Amino acid sequence: MLRNPIHLRLEKLESWQHVTFMACLCERMYPNYYEFCRQTEFGDAQLYRRILDLVWEVLVVKEAKVNFDSQLEKWEDAIPSADDYDLYGVYPAIDACIALGELIHSQLSGATLEHAIAISETSIRTVAMLEMTQAGREMTDEELYTLPAIEEEWDIQWEIFRLLAACEERDLELIKGLRADLREAGSSNIGINLGQ
């Protein structure tokens, strides 16, 4: 599935940079889950928000202690099943859930690189699936690479990567700034906006 040089470059980053990268991508997938919950009255979008906020907190507050085991238990019930819904939105919602699950697992295992790559791929997959669904057919990686929506997703991932890679040490202002910008934009990787 759509590989990108960013996956090799992520290896050069430290674990806090991986976690910030993942939190940013989850922030960009959150509206997809939020919108699905709103349309179907399934689950609890606030739970996604709370868990993601706990990760942001761990990034900026040294003493923050979070029991991610118990968060994971709560989270597993909040993931919809595609079989239960005849609604396209279930797929981006599930991808958003997969991404948050990867982020929680990275906190439990400390293995941040593999989870960062997995979330990057998940976010791209959400965009690719929507493009193929709208076109009504499967597409090759070559075709997908030429699509503006895919290009834009990679551009945003690279932009977040570059900001993080430029840091010598953990930069709290940058972390807070990324979080604030993404929350304020409130727009997902497939253009779903919060509060529309």
Question: Short description, anyone?
Answer:
The protein is mostly helical and 196 residues long. It has nine helices and no strands.
Task: Name its key features.
YP_001051499.1 fold like, mainly alpha, 9 helices, 196 residues
Query: How many beta-strand runs?
Result: 0
Q: What amount of the residues lies in strands?
A: under 5%
CATH class identity? Mainly Alpha
**Could you give the order of the helices and strands?**
HHHHHHHHH
Largest sheet: none
Overall shape: globular
Whole-number total of structural domains: 1
Q: Give the helix proportion (percent range).
A: 55-70%
CATH topology term = YP_001051499.1 fold like
What is the mean pLDDT? 94
Distance between the termini: 32 Å
The stretches of 5 or more residues where confidence is low (pLDDT under 50) are none
InterPro entries: DUF416, YP001051499.1-like_dom_sf
Pfam family, one: DUF416
Protein name: YjaG family protein
Organism: Symbiopectobacterium purcellii
